[in-house]
UniProtKB/TrEMBL annotation:
Gene coding for it: miaB
InterPro entries assigned to the protein according to its UniProt record, in alphabetical order: Elp3/MiaA/NifB-like_rSAM, Methylthiotransferase, Methylthiotransferase_CS, Methylthiotransferase_N, Methylthiotransferase_N_sf, MiaB_methiolase, rSAM, rSAM_horseshoe
Cofactors: [4Fe-4S] cluster
A GO MF term: tRNA-2-methylthio-N(6)-dimethylallyladenosine(37) synthase activity
Protein name according to UniProt: tRNA-2-methylthio-N(6)-dimethylallyladenosine synthase
Keyword terms: 4Fe-4S, Cytoplasm, Iron, Iron-sulfur, Metal-binding, S-adenosyl-L-methionine, Transferase, tRNA processing
SUPFAM superfamilies, A to Z: Radical SAM enzymes
One Pfam assignment: UPF0004
Similarity remark: Belongs to the methylthiotransferase family. MiaB subfamily.
Metal-binding in keyword set: yes
Catalytic activity as recorded in UniProt: N(6)-dimethylallyladenosine(37) in tRNA + (sulfur carrier)-SH + AH2 + 2 S-adenosyl-L-methionine = 2-methylsulfanyl-N(6)-dimethylallyladenosine(37) in tRNA + (sulfur carrier)-H + 5'-deoxyadenosine + L-methionine + A + S-adenosyl-L-homocysteine + 2 H(+)
Residue ranges constituting the Radical SAM core domain according to the UniProt record: 187-417
Length: 487
């Protein structure tokens, strides 16, 4: 997408256009001028580093940031301590993510003192919290640019503002109904890509800060989504991950409403696209229609990430999740009947306010009944501004820690059993890259999201091949190419 526009044709001496994305193209061309003159002064090309905290949504946003930085002349991505432009795309779902950002900023300050032209930018969910911005304004004056989750599309414009003003630039929007299409973006992988289908969340789970920092639910139009995927496929992509906080409520607020299942049917038709993944699904909105589409589809991977959060119906109610333990278990049964080889993964929070030993045992019970392929386990983190933060009976830290360890042990034991059942079978995998530890091996991902390492070279990267799984190693496999594999 980034190569389609000839930035040299943009008249940067004139006024900035009002309409998007043309306005941003203008600022990209303008920023490029500043960066080129800096590079000439230093006698070398400038570099950048984008650090992503948090979820897949942030990872996708970071690709957009990297795309813009490359276009304005930061030619190469490098390590943080060497880069001329450093940006942190932050997360605030749990407190420890915030603590890490402050810690790393201290280090960046020391680096910047040796390198005055260095730019430091912060964006993402944490910046949507007013207390955070106050703290940064007071104690982290060396930061150049701060923006939030709603105006990421304005990155180039904000960089120009910073170049022109020589002072810290802050631009945070409370919410937006705007979706800007056709911005440049850089992809981490040539053969797979995340695709946003919606932004924001309307659920207000009582522990969660996301609805406050990501705003209300907004769906992209199906035409824009299909067009983006078609152009990705033309560019070599074979697998897409459809992204949204709650993909099951996709399309409800469109002018012409469309369900998520209907959107999937449209995407399935795209020729050349081989695999479709999506996340995250909220159990309360997972429809029978979606299960049907998954069962019929040749392209949707047999993997469902279905966060349960707690196995206690009493706690689920306090969490405002709007389903019960029984409803969740029935849903799992229904999905397994329709898609027998489905891999199920989940998120679980331990130590939500008021969680008793009995409540926790209900969670353990669900874990034993469902036998998840894997589960992400989190210690409850109190987020200021959420209803749960002011609930009585916060659970003592030592009790939470003991429960968390018990849960993790159970989850891991089950997961390693469940994940081993494919030993001795042949599976279709998408080869994602050369193995990190042994360069004679490549690493491929199966439809169910498990990894397999097997002998092979870089010519296999980005290809779908059949692999024999010779040995289960708990959470991954060792294997070799099946005899008559087809590319
Ligand atoms: N504390 C702990 N975990 C949380 N999550 C969201 N908010 C909190 C919180 N305050 C977890 C949920 C969600 C995942 C992305 O993060 O399990 O599904
Ligand atoms: Fe947070 Fe609940 Fe929305 Fe997920 S569905 S982002 S947990 S409020």
């Amino acid at each position: 997408m980034k190569n389609k526009i000839d930035f040299t044709q943009i008249d940067i001496a004139g006024e900035a256009p009002i309409a998007e994305p043309q306005r941003q193209y203008y600022f990209i061309a303008k920023a490029k001028e500043y960066v080129e003159s800096q590079a000439a002064e230093l006698g070398r090309p400038l570099t950048f580093c984008v650090t992503t905290f948090g979820c897949q949504m942030n990872a996708r946003d970071s690709e957009k940031l990297a795309g813009i930085l490359e276009l304005i002349g930061y030619t190469e991505e490098t390590e943080e301590d060497k880069a001329d432009f450093v940006i942190y795309n932050t997360c605030t779902v749990r407190e420890n993510a915030n603590t890490r950002v402050y810690g790393r900023l201290g280090q960046l300050n020391r680096i910047k003192q040796q390198k005055k032209h260095m730019m430091i930018a912060l964006c993402g969910c944490m910046m949507q919290e007013p207390e955070v911005v106050e703290k940064l304004k007071k104690s982290y004056r060396f930061v150049d640019l701060i923006f939030g989750t709603h105006n990421i599309f304005k990155f180039a414009e904000l960089i120009v503002t910073r170049f022109q003003s020589e002072r810290m630039v802050i631009d945070i929007w409370k919410d937006t109904d705007k979706i800007v299409e056709d911005l440049p973006s850089e992809r981490k992988y040539t053969f797979k890509s995340g695709v946003n289908i919606m932004f924001g969340c309307n659920n207000f789970c009582s522990y969660c800060i996301v609805p406050y920092v990501r705003g209300r639910e907004r769906s992209r139009s199906p035409r824009d989504i299909v067009r983006e995927i078609e152009s990705l496929v033309a560019d070599g992509v074979v697998e897409v991950m459809l992204l949204g906080q709650n993909v099951n409520s996709y399309g409800k607020n469109l002018d012409e409403p469309l369900t998520f299942a209907e959107l999937l049917r449209e995407i399935e038709k795209i020729e050349g696209l081989e695999r479709i993944r999506f996340m995250t699904s909220h159990p309360k909105d997972l429809s029978g229609e979606l299960i049907e589409v998954m069962a019929e589809s040749k392209k949707i991977c047999p993997h469902l990430h279905l966060p349960i959060q707690s196995g206690s119906s009493r706690i689920l109610q306090k969490m405002n999740r709007r389903y019960t333990k029984e409803h969740y278990l029935e849903l799992v049964d229904k999905i397994r009947r329709a898609v027998p080889d489905i891999s199920l993964t989940t998120d679980i929070i331990v130590g939500f306010p008021g969680e008793t030993e009995e409540d926790f045992e209900e969670t353990m019970d669900v874990v034993r009944k469902v036998r998840f392929d894997s589960a992400f386990t989190f210690i409850y983190s109190k987020r200021t501004g959420t209803p749960a933060a002011v609930m009585d009976e916060q659970v003592p830290a030592d009790v939470i820690k003991t429960r968390f360890d018990r849960l993790l042990k159970e989850v891991q034991a089950i997961s390693s059993e469940v994940c081993s059942v494919h030993e001795g079978t042949v599976q279709r995998v998408l080869v994602e890259g050369i193995n990190d530890h042994d360069s004679s091996l490549v690493t491929g991902r199966m439809g169910n999201n498990l990894l397999v390492h097997f002998p092979g070279g870089k010519e296999l990267v980005g290809r779908l091949v059949d692999v024999y799984l010779s040995e289960a190693k708990g959470f991954y496999y060792m294997g070799h190419l099946a005899e008559n594999y087809q590319s």
